[in-house]
């Protein structure tokens, strides 16, 4: 919806009328055609070829949660992009990792960021972490028509719950169904392998440093078995995007920090190509 740019300089009445604290509800009432889920696609035959993001992993530890993603986007059997970013801050205490159709996923994340910011400005308070997870679920559900045509978006949401004073992780399906994961979670094409890796290595008493190493190990194992997941690329200096959220807020590791973790893992993998061993008993 365009603002009135005539000589009066006044905004349309819709912008000045009290309403819902949800920005999505505002768009639904005044410009529903802007919402991604309301777009119609022309009749198509066969699968739609579009870049897809692949593997996202998360793990909680006492004091926070870690969310990370590989850097590869694929289109069919081709590598569409080697350095895509798949993990984004949602607000100060939460983040979203995207898997699925990359273009729609990034657009959904931007809308989600705006939704949380709009709520905070209207209500003068932030949503609870549970409320944020529910809002994201609604957005995914609104994209169901696109998902049925092969343009699915399946994110992983993680954040620090300031009320419960701990990190929490939420996973979703294409219908918007939401599940809280305990300890660790993964989504995307390499999620089966990443989850199996974390299942053997995760402990509830991990330190922040250990949790960071755990998610990069899981991404390495996913890349080892899933062609759509990209491992650390030392030659091009492309490393996983790794973020941590604690009571101090969201923090993204810089290239130096993430490369140090990745290189340490690579050094150990020269001795143990399949990664660290979990105890039998």
Low-confidence stretches: none
Q: What is the CATH architecture descriptor?
A: 4-Layer Sandwich
Indicate the CATH topology: Glutamine Phosphoribosylpyrophosphate, subunit 1, domain 1
Major sheet strand order: 12-2-3-13-14
Largest sheet: 5 strands, antiparallel
Which whole number gives the mean pLDDT? Answer: 87
Order of helices and strands: HHEEEEEEEEHHHEEEEHHEEH
| Cα shape | globular
Q: What count of domains describes the coordinates?
A: 1
Strand content: 15-25%
Alpha-carbon Rg, integer: 20 Å
Structural class: alpha+beta
Range of helix content: 25-40%
Count of separate DSSP helical elements: 8
CATH superfamily name? Aminohydrolase, N-terminal nucleophile (Ntn) domain
Strands, total number: 14
Amino-to-carboxy terminus distance:
62 Å
């Amino acid at each position: 919806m365009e603002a009135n740019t005539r000589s009066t300089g006044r905004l349309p009445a819709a912008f000045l009328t009290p309403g819902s604290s949800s920005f999505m509800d505002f768009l639904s009432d005044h410009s529903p055609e802007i919402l991604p889920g309301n777009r119609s696609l022309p009749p198509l035959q066969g699968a739609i070829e579009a870049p897809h993001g692949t593997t996202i992993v998360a793990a909680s530890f006492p004091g926070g949660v870690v969310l990370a993603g590989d850097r590869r986007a694929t289109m069919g059997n081709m590598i569409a992009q080697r350095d895509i970013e798949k993990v984004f801050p949602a607000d100060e205490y939460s983040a979203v990792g995207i898997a699925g159709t990359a273009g729609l996923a990034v657009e959904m994340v931007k809308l989600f960021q705006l939704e949380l910011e709009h709520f905070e400005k209207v209500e003068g308070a932030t949503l609870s972490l549970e409320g944020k997870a529910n809002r994201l679920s609604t957005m995914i559900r609104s994209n169901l028509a696109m998902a049925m045509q092969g343009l699915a978006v399946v994110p992983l949401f993680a954040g620090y719950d300031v009320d419960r004073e701990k990190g929490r992780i939420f996973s979703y399906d294409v219908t918007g169904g939401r599940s809280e994961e305990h300890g660790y979670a993964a989504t995307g094409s390499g999620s089966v392998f990443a989850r199996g890796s974390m299942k053997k290595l995760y402990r509830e008493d991990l330190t922040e440093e250990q949790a960071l190493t755990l998610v990069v190990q899981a991404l390495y194992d996913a890349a080892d078995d899933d062609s759509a997941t990209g491992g650390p690329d030392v030659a091009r200096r492309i490393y996983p995007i790794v973020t941590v959220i604690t009571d101090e807020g969201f923090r993204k590791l810089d290239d130096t920090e993430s490369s140090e973790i990745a290189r340490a893992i690579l050094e150990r993998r020269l001795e143990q190509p399949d990664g660290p061993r979990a105890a039998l008993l």
